[in-house]
Specification:
The structure is a homodimer. Chain A has about 450 residues and is an alpha/beta fold. Chain A contains 19 helices and twelve strands. In chain A, the strands form two sheets. In chain A, strands 4, 5, 6, 7, 8, 9, 10, 11 and 12 form a nine-stranded mixed β-sheet that branches. The first copy, chain A, has a three-stranded antiparallel β-sheet with strand order 1-2-3. At the A-B interface, helix 1, helix 5, helix 13 and helix 14 of A face helix 1, helix 5, helix 13 and helix 14 of B. Chains A, B: It comes from Saccharopolyspora elongata.
Chain lengths: ~450, ~450
């Protein structure tokens, strides 16, 4: 089918979540969950659009949106089929733009803008193929998958040949695992009970409800006050018993020494992992913490800027669980690289989700990993937070503590048209009524 | 003197340097050197303005400028004297903004925007004090200097007490070293001969001219083609003899293994250091390269995102020379932290310069380091490139291969008013005449 990319439309979408303290943690006391949203328009007769976004937490969502718009000249007028047939080439062209890369390189606002655009192109490709993204990816050949990956800066840890070997080993079992996935779904864990802004009573009630809903792991935010954390951890452990895993998440609050001391105080309550104990840039710091707090495990990744930092975290034995993010590294292609790195090092991937639409995106990546890369769900869980799903055209479905495999074509990235109007910042009705929006700037 | 900050003005300034291949290297073939420029306006009776900028190389300078403008709400209406008296507090407030930090954290476009604003505030403070910035900093007490630094994520490598010790040890010699600096200047090295786009003949002539001008170190760009690099390195060595240091700069072109192989081919020509051999995020990669290529030394820093990555490069023995950048990390305050880290680990700081105005800025930081931190010029050189100085109100002065100490008040950051008009993008006359500007987008 002939067609070219006509252009992109961008939207600054913000949800006033800070009004309710949903999403509050030790580093992010007042987030307004936001999407810097992009739609790719084509002139193909099927009129299919690609949708994608970067997730931010409020201020700066306009800067993020400007960065996405700055990528439009690289897209406009491109042959659509050729572009979708070579998304590895498209990724390299965007990431290695000789002038834009100066603004990173491969990190921050520009890299997240590339994530939004690359993910929107994958959404478009999957919709045109009539398949959910996880299935589209899991049906590519090992050679096609390796071609999506830029091995620059990775070859000391993972070569294209090693990546091919990993994918070929998983190939014979693909069909059986896809059937298993469609039958039973993929395990989730919930962060819903654990926000810092909640009362002890609410924590207790939400822990109980989580277990009743079938979750086998939940997560508490920690890091603001040690005595509070010990009390909340005790309450949660009392409430769920010894068999439910309780992870804790410090959201980068600590220095290396503080992290070690703090986690030792929580250790009697058997935390499953400690997440983001310190700066996401501190590979050596994570390694030191991991060594000191074992057998408690370290997890990190939602703020890891790119595959080069993940490579080092794996090389340094700095994490036990790798938490990829769908829209911080540069989209699907870079996450295929990260899944391959994790498989090479034998580290389970447990994606970061929550925010706006991150659950919708990462489910596809974890399911692709199960079917075609690691071939395992053992010790693997996808984060689940019950925020804002109602704004999506194809929201996640959780049943019995599991994500059900999406079956609609695309990347589940599309916001409802009315949401794009109502939550537009700063002029949508949610932000202008009562003048409340202005208070948040 | 009473006054408040009234607001900031931003300017997208671009120089069409790609037309001449000045500044071409293996990763940046066609840069248009650009400044995302900011002026801080106050209502104080002295009408002094603060000037600062982020340096970019063309596309995306508009996004960078939007990020600077996004910081205005944090500045507007602030008491001027109180703000300038507590730039440590101002830095923390900007860097740890609970919503904006999501876009980094502490890296990329938002962090560089903070650099521009923080540096502009220092320019303002130094102008009001009637002193060049290096001198203003070098006259602060050790306690005042430590108060500028955010030790978050650093305490496993450098504590406030250790920083105080370093500064107190340097205190008795400050006056003598300041006099020495004003007398003799600070050694420079030149990158002018070594751009990839130049012919062998031009390389030869520029090497000769550099030595004639008094430079004792020069630098060649490498990394695009090994045979070319061997030939160019041979030419340069022939031309300058054995006593002039020749550094090479790969601008992140290589993977770890390639870097090691390539540098071994250049080793017969005695390269002084190899700069940016691989990804600036790859601490472990730099450490592996450093170990493999010794006694050739590794230098890096111009793209190191923040103090946490510098901390690790030092902890891992991954570099022999630390090349701080004035406007990539978050300005003066973060560079004080980096100078202290380098002093703690005994690694010489040789700042990155060139671009637009980076020579003007970094001279102040290196001179402050000499007077009040490391107390030494041994093995230390400031990069010098002879581009675009004519656009500055207070350009650097090089004599006999040395930077002369600036004596005008401020941070030497101010562009000439006519430059702000002529090089404005996309509507200034440089970009609209002949329609040439549009060709570069």
């Amino acid at each position: 089918m002939a067609g070219t990319i006509r252009g992109i439309r961008t939207f600054d979408i913000r949800f006033p979540t800070s009004r309710e303290l949903d999403g509050s943690d030790a580093m992010n006391p007042d987030p307004d969950y936001s999407a810097s949203y992009v739609v790719i328009d084509t002139d193909a007769p099927d009129e299919v659009e690609g949708h994608g976004f970067a997730f931010t937490i409020g201020r700066g969502n306009d800067v993020q949106t400007a960065a996405i718009k700055a990528l439009e000249p690289a897209l406009i007028g491109r042959d659509l089929q050729h572009t979708l047939d070579d998304l590895g080439g498209m990724w390299r062209e965007l990431v290695h733009d000789s002038q834009l890369r100066w603004l990173g390189p491969e990190k921050g606002v520009v890299h997240m803008a590339i994530a939004a655009v690359i993910n929107a192109l994958w959404d478009l490709k999957a919709k045109r193929a009539g398949k959910p993204l996880w299935q589209l990816l899991a049906e590519l050949t090992p050679e096609q998958l390796v071609d999506l990956v830029d091995f620059r800066y990775l070859s000391d840890a993972l070569t294209p040949d090693e990546a091919l070997d990993i994918l070929r080993r998983a190939e014979p079992g693909r069909a059986a695992r896809a059937a298993e996935l469609c039958e039973g779904g993929y395990p989730a864990y919930t962060t819903t009970p654990g926000w810092l802004g909640y009362s002890d009573e609410k924590l207790r009630r939400l822990c109980r409800e989580a277990v009743d809903l079938g979750f086998r792991q939940l997560k508490l935010k920690v890091g603001a006050d040690l005595a509070d954390d010990v009390r909340r951890m005790r309450i949660a452990r009392e409430e769920v018993g010894p068999d439910i895993r309780i992870a804790v998440d410090a959201n980068q609050r600590w220095d290396v020494g503080t992290a070690i001391d703090w986690i030792r105080e929580l250790a009697p309550f058997d935390p499953w992992w400690v997440e983001e104990p310190t700066s996401p840039d501190d590979v050596l710091g994570h390694a030191a913490i991991a060594q000191a707090i074992a057998p408690v495990r370290v997890a990190t990744g939602e703020h890891v800027a790119n595959r080069v930092v993940f490579k080092q975290l794996l090389q340094a034995n700095a994490l036990s669980y790798l938490q990829l993010d769908a829209a911080r590294v540069a989209g699907v292609n870079e996450n295929v690289a990260i899944l391959l790195l994790a498989a090479k090092f034998g580290v389970p991937v447990c994606p970061h989700a929550g925010g706006v639409g991150l659950c919708e995106l990462v489910q596809h990546l974890a399911m692709f990993d199960f079917v075609a890369v690691s071939g395992s769900m053992e010790d693997r869980v996808i984060e689940y937070v019950d925020h804002l799903h109602e704004h999506f055209v194809d929201p996640v479905t959780i049943r019995g503590g599991n994500y059900l495999a999406p079956d609609r074509p695309g990347f589940s990235a599309q916001l409802r048209p009315e949401t794009l109007v109502e939550y537009a910042y700063p002029d949508g009705p949610v932000w202008t009524s009562n003048g409340r929006g202005r208070m948040h700037e």
